[in-house]
Automatic annotation (TrEMBL):
Stated name of the protein: Trehalose 6-phosphate phosphatase
Recorded family membership: Belongs to the trehalose phosphatase family.
Cofactor(s) listed: a divalent metal cation
Gene3D superfamilies (alphabetical): HAD superfamily/HAD-like
Function: Removes the phosphate from trehalose 6-phosphate to produce free trehalose.
InterPro entries noted in UniProt: HAD-like_sf (IPR036412), HAD-SF_hydro_IIB (IPR006379), HAD_sf (IPR023214), OTSB-like (IPR044651), Trehalose_PPase (IPR003337)
Reaction equation(s) it catalyzes: alpha,alpha-trehalose 6-phosphate + H2O = alpha,alpha-trehalose + phosphate
């Protein structure tokens, strides 16, 4: 089965249409009148989750818990200098990292183990973007991917079905990656699009539609939170307004979620950021806040995440129940843990955490930074070439 497409752009127009009668289902989720019973029983598809506590939970203690999470998800950068104390701190960190690597070894040094397991299997690659393919930068608009990394991704996608899974919207992450042959799962998996598999029916995938991108090519589209779009846009406007006086805050629209970046905010102002976000969200019980690397993500409360997006894409590719598939997911974020967990618990693939500091994780292997990710992708290509020669 040829999983590759030949079109070069996946920028969508509004000419969406349902691709067959199976898709005439109720809305996937509705913020107005959620009816979970309307959905298929398959765990693949999102169901509405009611917030367990009332908006009263958004009080000072909740702010405090949120602040603690912000600090724990934002490890300080180690500044290299010749000061003895800093050198000592680096040694200690290296020792801790080396000890942690015993539990989560490098995917580079474990490459033979990975490829031994991959023999006679179809590898499907899932790659996070920020912090995985691009370095984390102060301004999220400047998180550009190097040409060398783009080439590495392009080459690996020639041999393995490859998807980018990101918190950013599909449109935004596509503008960074610029590779039309890939699948994209933006907005933490709530905004999925990619090449249409020729001669394959998508009739078993409720909610999946076919759309036409700018250059006239067909793409699949799956947006399980589309009923939240207006609400998310409204919240984004409020968040911009209430945080406008906090220096360094960047409120970024990612279609089905809003990212409130505090990377450039002085730590003494973090409580203000938390308070503003909770102040706005107290009127939106169907939205929640999750934590990324120096970012608060406002997103719909639906049973959908990056792990579900991985399952969806495997199903779309006709590989979800296959014994000869090996999904590999590479990511650096807490939100990537949902995907790591699914692969670990299903014993069906490998999660690879990108980190230079020890972290609790469901990943099996690790890579230190995007440079090592690029090296890993190149090794995969080299191995596949040798295997097929
Ligand atoms: Mg990331």
């Amino acid at each position: 089965m040829d999983l590759k497409a030949t079109h070069s752009s996946t920028i969508l127009t509004d000419r969406t249409h349902a691709c067959n009668s199976r898709l005439c289902l109720p809305p996937i989720v509705s913020p107005i009148s959620p009816t979970a019973s309307a959905y298929p029983s398959s765990t693949l598809y999102p169901t509405f989750q009611r917030r367990k506590a009332s908006s009263g939970m958004l009080n000072e203690s909740h702010d405090g818990a949120c602040l603690d999470a912000m600090k724990s998800s934002s490890p300080p950068h180690i500044k290299l200098n010749k000061d003895f104390i800093s050198d000592l701190a680096i040694c200690k960190n290296d020792a801790a990292y080396d000890a942690w690597m015993m539990k989560c070894p490098s995917a580079l040094s474990s490459f033979k183990q990975i490829t031994n397991h991959a023999k006679y299997k179809k590898i499907v690659l899932f790659l996070d973007y920020d912090g995985t393919l691009s370095h984390i930068v102060d301004n999220p608009e400047h998180a550009f991917m190097s040409n060398a990394m783009r080439t590495a991704v392009k080459n690996v996608a020639k041999y393995f079905s490859t998807a980018i899974v990101s918190g950013r919207s599909c449109h935004k992450v596509y503008k960074f990656v610029k590779l039309g042959e890939l699948y994209y799962a933006g907005s933490h998996g709530m905004d999925i699009m990619g090449p249409v598999i020729k001669n394959e029916s998508i009739s078993d995938l409720p909610g999946c539609t076919i759309s036409i991108e700018e250059q006239g090519n067909e793409v699949i589209l799956f947006q399980p939170a589309k009923e939240f779009l207006l609400m998310i846009n409204e919240v984004q406007s409020f968040l911009k307004e209430v945080t406008k006086d906090i220096e360094g805050v960047i409120v970024e629209s990612n279609k089905f979620c809003v990212s409130v970046h505090y990377r450039l905010v002085d730590e003494k102002d973090w409580p203000k950021v938390v308070h503003c976000v909770h102040h706005v969200l107290k009127d939106y019980p169907h939205l929640q806040v999750t934590h990324g690397r120096r970012v608060l993500e406002v997103r719909p409360i639906i049973d959908w995440n990056k792990g579900k997006a991985v399952e969806f894409l495997l199903e779309y590719l006709g590989l979800r129940t296959s014994d000869d598939v090996l999904p590999i997911y590479v990511g650096d974020d807490r939100t990537d843990e949902d995907a790591f967990k699914i692969l670990r618990e299903g014993k069906c693939g490998y999660g690879i955490l990108v980190t230079s500091v020890p972290k609790q994780t469901n990943a099996v292997f690790s890579l230190r930074d995007p440079t090592e990710v690029k090296k890993f992708l190149k090794l995969l290509v080299k191995w596949k070439k040798l295997e097929t020669s």
